[in-house]
Amino acid sequence: MIITKRGEQIGEITDLAQVGQAALDFEVTNLDNKQVTLKDYAGKKVLVSVFPDINTSVCDTQTRHFFEEASKHEDLTIVNLSNNTVEELANWCATAGIEVDMLSDANHSFADAYGLLISGVDLLERSVFVIDRDGQLVYKEVLSEITDEPDYDAVLAAADALN
Q: Of 1, 77, 142, 148, which has the most beta carbons under 10 Å away?
């Protein structure tokens, strides 16, 4: 898939995740510098919000939007994931005054498993995934324009449709 920024091509991704199949495993780092894998979310409905760089306006907006929605969806675990460093993610949380589940993919485990590392720019492509309690991928949105926001309503509708 070709990835653009304001209409100009900046790279490509492979996009390996398939709806209807088991969600692909990964190992990332949380804000406590502990390793986290998909297995840590077993038995939960999970929304994975992926963004390129927390220190940009669209990524900030995406993270804040899902943070605001979290309280309305008590049985939904929302995690935010980028290849920003743990320190960058922690600094954003402190500055924003928001406590959210932030995961750093600085080692590219998630990026490689899901095929979302944009060639040539070392950023994850903006995307959103919904994983059911059994670990199946039930929804995905991978945006080809890096500055576009996800379809928040569609993502949350997919999550709400799960029992």
A: 142
- Mean of the per-residue pLDDT values of the chain: 95
What are the pLDDT digits (tens) for 106-152? 999 999 999 999 998 999 999 999 999 999 999 999 999 999 999 99
Structural domain span for residue 88: 2-160
* CATH number assigned to the domain comprising residue 31: 3.40.30.10
Under DSSP, the state recorded for 15 is -
Q: How far apart are CA 4 and CA 9, in angstroms?
A: 4
Domains of the chain: total = 1
For the annotated catalytic residues, the residue numbers are 59
Residues facing 37 on adjacent strands:
27
CB 38 within 8 A of CB 25: yes
Whole-number pLDDT of residue 163: 78
